[in-house]
Design a protein that fits this description.
This protein is mostly helical and 430 residues long.
Length: 430
């Protein structure tokens, strides 16, 4: 550190102490004088002390740092021991202030050593964590056990299982890469979790449309079946439920684009025009239906019972593996016709698997036109499947409102598929 910078480092360390001290002082402003373990001046002094230790450690080495941390820790422990002995009902002797004091010293020491950006960022994050105590504690009260388990399961899928899987190709035609397949399982599970969180954030009572939009991120097919069953309760909510189905299909298109971008982003220019048009049809139709019945709501409209589940994730991984092998076999034995047949059959219930398979088939030098056409064809058959679900499960009223936009969506998808196969739409974007 140049000679003219130690004073600036000390001032930065002092500012860190004052910043954290202001937050602690504000949080404990109702506590009487002398009844706090540490106040604004104490945190400011800890910051200044940490800065001086940091500056001195540049010449004295690690020994100065160790001595400073030990000394400050001893002071904090001694203060807390005295605090416990003298404690009454109003005295704050919680461990948070102790940890905040030690954090202040360490951050100030970093500033003293010249790591100003790291120390400043750490101070801001510390203040945020300390200041958001009511919100953080409140969120723990609102979260359910299943939701907490869902977070842990997502961490198991991504942090524990993903790194240990081999990153090489196996199986027929070298189509199965365990790590690549599982990474996509994690991506899809994360999208499902995002949809679940969004549904919880908006709440079913905020509107069926919000539930359809965000619930579709998890499973547009499951949400369509659920809304179709709800429509049997009364024809008066059929228009708004139809809007929810259409928005679920729109969010499915967005989800497909995210998955394709993660595997082979070069397909995006070919997929964007048809998927955007299909999405616009869904959004505009849903908004029109909402204006017909803007106040319609119903209880328990979410089709999601668990944010993340291990068994469905394993099943999804198996489905992905089967679809990858089936697509490779169809391409080898039957050419483009076989690939499109597999895509259309898979699209009836699951777009994710075929989107992954088609994207991998296109990368790095595969048939991009066939891959893009397969994804659009799967989306088309999925729209047709939703029409059938709406009529068979939901009844004539739901089919009356949701059917025409879905038919139009399927028509756009069919036309785009033909244009891609005939080379009318360009797909070579490399």
């Amino acid at each position: 550190m140049p000679f003219d910078q130690p004073m600036f480092a000390l001032l930065s360390a002092l500012a860190i102490g004052l910043l954290i001290g202001v937050e602690r002082g504000f949080a404990q402003r109702d506590v009487g004088e002398g009844q706090r373990i540490a106040g604004l001046r104490t945190y400011a002094l800890l910051g200044l002390l940490g800065g001086m230790v940091g500056v001195l450690s540049l010449a004295g080495g690690a020994a100065v740092i160790v001595a400073g941390i030990v000394a400050v820790t001893a002071i904090i422990v001694a203060a807390y021991v005295m605090g416990f002995r003298m404690a009454d009902a109003d005295m704050d002797v919680g461990i948070t202030s102790a940890v905040a004091s030690l954090t202040t010293f360490v951050l100030a020491m970093l500033a003293g050593r010249g790591n100003l950006e790291l120390a400043g960022a750490g101070a801001v994050m510390t203040v945020l964590l300390l200041g958001l105590k009511p919100e953080l504690h409140g969120s723990l009260q609102r979260i359910s056990r299943d939701e907490l388990k869902g977070v842990f399961k997502l961490l198991v899928l991504s942090v524990v299982l993903l790194p240990v899987l081999p990153d090489q190709n196996y199986g027929p035609w070298g189509t199965l890469n365990p790590r690549a397949i599982w990474w996509l399982v994690v991506l899809i599970a994360a999208l499902s979790f995002a949809g679940y969180v969004a549904v919880r954030a908006f709440g079913p009572t905020r509107g069926i449309l919000a539930t359809g939009l965000f619930g579709g991120l998890a499973s547009s097919t499951a949400l369509t079946v659920h809304f179709a069953r709800l429509s049997r309760r009364g024809s008066d909510i059929a228009p708004i439920l139809s809007g929810g189905v259409l928005l679920a299909s729109t969010s499915m298109s967005l989800r497909t684009l995210v998955i394709v971008a993660a595997v082979d982003w070069r397909l995006l220019p070919a997929l964007l025009p048809p998927l955007v048009v299909m999405g616009l049809i869904g959004v505009t139709s849903a908004l029109w239906l909402a204006r017909r019945d803007p106040g319609a709501t119903t209880a328990q409209v979410s089709a999601l019972s668990s944010p993340v589940a291990i068994t469905p994730a394993l099943v999804l991984g198996l489905i992905l593996a089967v679809i990858l092998v089936a697509t490779a076999a169809a391409r080898e034995w039957f050419g483009a016709t076989g690939v499109l047949a597999i895509a259309m059959i898979s699209g009836i219930s699951n777009i994710d698997a075929i989107a992954v398979s088609m994207s991998q088939m296109a990368a790095p030098n595969g048939p991009q036109a066939l891959a893009a056409a397969g994804i659009i064809a799967a989306t088309t058959t999925n729209s047709v499947a939703k029409i059938i679900m709406a009529r068979v499960i939901g009844g004539p009223e739901l089919a009356r409102y949701a059917g025409p936009p879905l038919v139009l969506t399927a028509l756009v998808g069919a036309i785009a598929t033909v244009l891609l196969l005939r080379g009318v739409l360009p797909v070579d974007f490399t």
